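Structural prep section.
Before we set up the soaks we want a predicted structure of the protein with adenosine-5'-triphosphate in place, mainly to decide which crystallisation condition to try first. Input record follows.
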Amino acid sequence: MTSAATVSAAGLTLRYGRTAALDDVTLGLGEGVTGLLGPNGAGKTSLLRVLATAVPADRGAFTVLGHDPATAAGRREARRRLGYLPQNPGFHPEFTAFAFVDYVAILKELTDRGARHREVRRVLEAVDLTDVRGKRIKRLSGGMRQRVALAAALVGDPGVLLLDEPTVGLDPEQRMRFRELIADAGASRTVLLSTHQTEDVAMLCHRVIVMARGRVRFAGTPAELTARAAGRVWIGTQRDPGARAGWRTGLGTFRNVGDPPKGADLLEPTLEDGYLLVLDGEPAEVASV
Ligand SMILES: Nc1ncnc2c1ncn2[C@@H]1O[C@H](COP(=O)(O)OP(=O)(O)OP(=O)(O)O)[C@@H](O)[C@H]1O
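Run finished without errors. Recording the tokens verbatim:
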């Protein structure tokens, strides 16, 4: 479903002292939801912060819907088209849901009070929070707070949404509900979704990017990532020496991922199996996203 890239990045590099949070990241995003997977410290938040224009990269360039944030005018245009849900949204707990989203709308330059309030009501409705819009944020559940943060990111109907681990801490039902909202948002936009949940990616995403140590290690479809583990997952009575990863299941057997022995009892791979193999020093395979 992707056609022309809506977000293109080339050679993005961001260093913190000796750590390369981003190391020569090149990618292209299109409409739909792209999942961003990677272990702790992989650089996911750094990538989202750079693309959100919250932090400038040390090297490299990118465009958002054709606008280049390297120039002041381009940055203003890019920011008008971006919605960003950061990892820790930093709510003021005394704000009501409405007041918080309204505050974000003011920051997004919606100066006409009537039009702004209509927009705030629209985005709160889109995330199903109309009934609690007058409640203080400190009185809302974690799932509701995440929806307030998503509403804030949706203000102004941005063409590009950057979501940093929005499903963390949600119970399965809330997570399902949140996935639906993200899928809706991705129907007509570009969404980049950072997550540790491989099920989020399997159930929701059109594309997936895997990062490790600041580099893109894989970019392709969820099916392509899962296919990386075809013929490489097997069941055994112990962790196999040929396994790159292996763990005891609830049934007491071992699920092994790696190089199976002859005659191994092979299992259908999951996206998580493919992800584990990509992380285990597999050669980088970067298709266009
Ligand atoms: N402000 C900072 N100062 C110093 N180092 C930083 C800073 N922000 C990030 N880093 C480092 O950059 C690297 C990438 O961090 P980043 O937060 O982007 O990873 P991540 O993939 O989002 O991790 P997580 O899954 O734990 O959120 C890590 O080594 C981290 O310690």
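Observations: The chain has three domains: 1-81+158-219, 89-156, 226-286.
Flagged for discussion at group meeting.
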